[in-house]
Design goal:
The complex is a heterodimer. Chain A is built from 10 helices and no strands. Chain A is mainly alpha-helical. Among the domains of chain A are: about 60 residues; about 90 residues, Cytochrome Bc1 Complex, Chain C, CATH 1.20.810.10. In chain B, about 55% of the residues lie in helices and about 15% in strands. In chain B, β1 and β2 form a beta hairpin. Chain B has a two-stranded antiparallel ribbon. The chains are: A mainly alpha, B alpha+beta. Chains A and B meet through α6 of A and α2 of B.
């Protein structure tokens, strides 16, 4: 644990005392990593309090609504993982949290699809935003897989039926050897570890890209301005 | 709980339109999403300009 030089001596104004890197070595991995972090998003754009005037439209709200629903999905999923299958099947509170998890997922997908429609019809890949669009589409596809493994992890007859119906489809694409929908333990681990990790990291990348390149303007924004 | 079980076990209502077959529940959800999308495009978004006496641009 270190303390900034300015906190130790309020009167310190010399560059050597205020410098964040006392060694001054630009090639140190600490300096390079810090520079990389600082360069991810332009200064002041990480959490901006002002946006271009065209952002004042409800269609721009659905991205953050999707993110909000995802937070509820993850939070309720964490609570479900604490209680376990027996708890969410027999307990009243478990039923409630299970329902919160389900309906927040429903809202997550609804908001995400409307967000996708809005960005598709705005051609949101314009202005060097191709990776923002691609990460969004990949997120959509991984989210479908996460939802699928979630239905397989319910530990009830519905999960068994979905697994029995889904195995032929998965086998037909050659993925059954390493992705066995009839194996509840494997599906549960995909659902609570691998896929949420992928969704979380890609969401972070997606948001960084949005903040890095800014919100896409409407197609006719230049004509109006 | 028993009423919910009866609803869950009942046969679903489906719309058949040529090769397209969709449950009424899913069709309603899609219709609501399309409605929300249209409303998001046409309903004006409240801005500071609407509330403030002075007309500062955002």
């Amino acid at each position: 644990m270190t303390t900034r030089a300015s906190e130790l001596s309020p009167d310190a104004t010399g560059p050597s005392e205020l410098s964040p890197d006392p060694t001054g070595d630009p090639d140190s991995w600490t300096n390079r990593l810090r520079g990389w972090f600082e360069g991810l998003v332009p200064a002041g754009q990480a959490l901006p309090d002002r946006q271009p005037v065209y952002v004042a439209s409800w269609i721009y709200v659905f991205g953050v609504l999707t993110l909000t629903a995802l937070v509820v999905v993850i939070a309720s999923g964490v609570v479900l993982s604490l209680g376990g299958a027996t708890w969410w099947h027999v307990s009243s509170v478990g039923h409630y949290v299970n329902s919160v998890h389900l309906w927040s997922v429903e809202l997550f997908f609804g908001f995400m699809v409307i967000h996708l429609w809005g960005n598709f019809w705005m051609a949101a890949w314009r202005g060097r935003r191709a990776m923002t669009w691609i990460t969004g589409i990949v997120l959509f596809l991984i989210s479908i897989g996460t939802s699928f493994t979630g239905f397989l992890s319910q530990s009830n007859f519905s999960a068994q039926w979905i697994a029995a119906e889904g195995k032929d489809g998965i086998n037909s694409i050659g993925a059954g050897a390493f992705f066995n929908v009839l194996n509840p333990a494997q599906m549960l681990l995909w659902h609570v570890v691998l896929l949420p990790l992928s969704v979380g990291l890609l969401t972070l990348l997606h948001i960084i890209l949005v903040r890095r390149h800014g919100v896409v303007p409407p197609l006719d924004a230049r004509l109006e301005n | 709980m028993s009423a919910l079980s009866i609803v869950a076990e009942g046969p679903g209502k489906y719309i058949h339109w040529g090769v397209i077959q969709i449950s009424v529940a899913n069709a309603i959800i899609i219709a609501v999403m399309v409605l929300l999308f249209i409303l998001a495009l046409v309903v004006p978004f409240p801005t500071h300009d609407d509330q403030a006496d002075e007309g500062h641009s955002r």
